[in-house]
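Anyone? Bumping this.
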Amino acid sequence: MTSRLGWAPYALLLPSLLFFVVFFATPGVQAFALAFQAPDGTFGLASVQRMLGDPKFSGALTTTVALVILVIPIQLVLAMSMALVINSRLKGQGLWLYVYALPLGISELAAGIVWVSIFTQSGWLNSILLGLGVIDRPITWQSAETPWLLIMCVVIAEAWRATSIIMIILVAGLQSIPREFLEAADVCGATTWQKIRRVVLPMLRPSLQVAVILRTIMAFQTFATVIALAGSGLNVLAGEAQRWATDINDEHVAAAYAGLILVLSLAGTVLFLVLLPTREEQQA
Amino acid sequence: MQSKGMRRSRLPAVLAAMALAVSACGSGGGSPGASKVVMISSQFVPTTEQEAMRKGVLANFNGTVEFIGADPGPFNAQIRAQQKAGKGDISLIGGLDGDFSAFAADGLLTDLSDVATSLADVGINKDYLKLGKLGTDKQLYIPWVQATYIMVARTEALTYLPAGADIKKLTWDQLTEWGANIKAKTGEPKLGFPAGELGLLHRFFQGYAYPSFTGGVNTTFTGDAANKMWTWMQKTWQYVNPQSTTYGFMQEPLQSGEVWVAWDHVARLIDALKDPKAFVAFPVPSGPKGKAFMPVVVGLAIPTTSSNVAGAKELIKYLLQPKTQAATLTSVSFFPVIGAGLPGDLSPGLKAEADAVAAQQSAGDALPALLPVGLGDQGGAYNKVFQDAFQQIVIGGKDPATVLKSLVPTLQGVFTTSKAPCWLPDPPSQGPCQVQ
């Protein structure tokens, strides 16, 4: 097989390899070099220390990790339910796919602004609660004094915005499960829950792995939703990287933040590769 | 087979479309006519303001203007990059005195004395023209427009003013009392500050709170007077709407009623003042050292790398004409710097702002505090010191003296790196400003 194809596979891989080297690997290495450089050009840990010593650093790290830990399980459950609805071949399943996928077309910042109009004091949520008589004065959801409430607002907005991308991956995974397996389970008298647990979830493992890894990487980069909903009340790593790059004009500290995001994303990826091994990886 | 044939026959069309797209990219931005002027500005950066500049101010210029509003980082980076390259597209720079002093120090600005002479008949404010020389005998920038920060309140808040208080002569303690009264009666904290991502709260500390409590900014950064100011802010914050940390422009929470009394930049309050029955504009309160306020003078300069000096000079002359100055006022709420004064048919909102600004400037205890001067690309790092102090002291509730002490090395680092001397109201310094 290999001898017949000769060098063709490598030639076909070359464009994507070139793309990777030029647009990802090279800037990535350069960014790391920047992070370990002081503004005067000398190599060392000055910029990393400046990042670690910044009053906003610990808050940004905690908030980012909290967001990742909170948002991913919620999204996974939601996306799984949505994918099962679509895959159930109910009447109008096509419509549900479109409805669920709508947030995919909305940018992160626009989604943030939509949710500001819901959570702001004079926003939709308070108006509805006041109208129903549940509360007698508006609740301040977006206050820096109640950071957990603020994080909850961001989690809800993020869950709404980015669940559909996981759902699409899971739908694709579900549709690749051969019907015979489920029919066999039916013949053996399996309940719906047993089918999901014993057939669907194990066969969905590769899709789940991809979805969780992709979403973790995206969650570490969350930025515009936080800016829109929390302003200066919450800091996240990506927001600090942007602030150091454009406002404070120190590309070295910005690169240190970017490097940290990369390291954390890599750690998350490795963690999920270990936790959710696919069959090939288990055999290897 | 048929579909393969169709695919093949489509290929030339696809290639032609791609070629068209590529050629369109190449000539992006329209034809490079002789009078096209690329203008970069550190002011009018928010999208709405950029749009107002393009449509309301620059559209009537006899030529094409490409207006780029840029945050401090990209603003400095682009101008510096073109300086390094020795040539560039940027023909005109709109910026603050502090931006220009850093460029001038590196010999980046063209002498505009001839433009100043030809504009003698419009009567540009003489003090501002002098500022534009940056201490040299050359006119390195031409003053363009000016602005400042004031207070605005909803009329229903006025009934809660402390007994005997005159809204034009408030003190900061009276503002706190006012906020306390409102909270006591309505149950809600209704003072407001722009402490969000796009907000200008750092200017409140640099130009208002610090000078009016301590008489300086950088030379009085720590000490008893500074601690007193931060303690006042901590105390006042309980009457400030906690959602303030999300506010960029105070006009929106004022209009929605989330906030009843707010401090902000005139351009960020104007939408609220369009309804003169619902809102009042008034001067900022005074502190122990006076009524500090920050005049903002925006200027125009031509970099030595400009590719269209003649066009840029024409654009400067156009922007200083009474008609354009009036259009700038109505479009972006920045006030004229020329002798013609304010147009007669001023909208009620602008009239209210102009009156508040005049009352502020002419107050007996007026204490002008300049925008940072000579910081160059350290401007953002300078602002961050004040933002960090606010986050830790007011939001975090930490001890002011400890936090301020911990920030001194960073603040001193800003001056050591930029070599900027002290500016008003701090006393002048030999060499970089020394933080105390």
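Late reply, but here is one note on the structure posted above: The first helix of chain B runs from residue 2 to 26.
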